[in-house]
C-alpha cells in the first residue's frame, strides 16, 4: 500500500505540514495514530494529538455527542492558531 493511502506507513515524514491528529481510545487505529503523531514530532513536524476517552472509530459522525462537539472545538482552535501563525504581523 502506498504511503499516500496510509501516511503512518511512510518512512520519511520530514517536510510535512503541521498536523492535527484526533483519535478515540476505542478506535482500532489508536496506536497507529498516536505513533504517527510521535513520529511526526520526531521528524520536526508540528503535530498536535488529541485522544478522546471512549470514542470509537468514526465518532465524528455522531454529531449529537459531547466528544464530537469537543473535537470540533479542538479542530477549530488548532486551525485558527495555524492561520494566525502564518499571517504577517
List the helices and strands and how they pair.
Blueprint: E1 19-26, H1 30-42, E2 47-56, H2 66-86
Parallel strand pairs: 1-2
Descriptive notes:
This protein is an alpha+beta fold. A two-stranded parallel ribbon has the order 1-2. It has helices spanning 30-42, 66-86, and strands spanning 19-26, 47-56. 38% of the residues lie in helices and 20% in strands. The longest helix is centred in the last third of the chain and has 21 residues, at 66-86. The chain is flat, with a radius of gyration of 14 Å. It has one domain (17-86).
The structural class is alpha+beta
Distance between the termini: 43 Å
- Unreliable stretches: none
Note the beta-strand portion.
15-25%
| Radius of gyration (Å) | 14 Å
- Morphology: flat
H and E order = EHEH
Counting DSSP H or I runs of 4 or more residues, the number of helices is 2
> How many β-strand stretches?
2
Order of strands in the sheet with the most strands? 1-2
Give a short account of the largest sheet. Answer: 2 strands, parallel
Q: Oligomerization state of this entry?
A: single chain
Task: Tell me the domain tally.
Answer: 1
Helicity level: 25-40%
Q: Residue-averaged pLDDT, rounded?
A: 92
Amino acid at each position: 500500500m502506498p504511503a499516500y493511502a496510509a501516511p503512518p506507513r511512510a518512512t520519511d515524514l520530514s517536510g510535512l505540514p503541521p498536523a492535527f491528529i484526533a483519535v478515540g481510545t476505542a478506535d482500532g487505529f489508536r496506536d497507529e495514530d498516536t505513533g504517527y503523531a510521535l513520529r511526526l514530532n520526531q521528524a520536526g513536524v508540528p503535530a498536535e494529538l488529541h485522544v478522546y476517552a471512549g470514542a470509537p472509530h468514526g465518532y465524528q459522525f455522531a454529531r449529537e455527542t459531547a466528544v464530537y462537539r469537543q473535537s470540533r472545538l479542538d479542530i477549530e482552535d488548532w486551525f485558527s492558531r495555524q492561520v494566525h501563525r502564518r499571517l504577517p504581523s
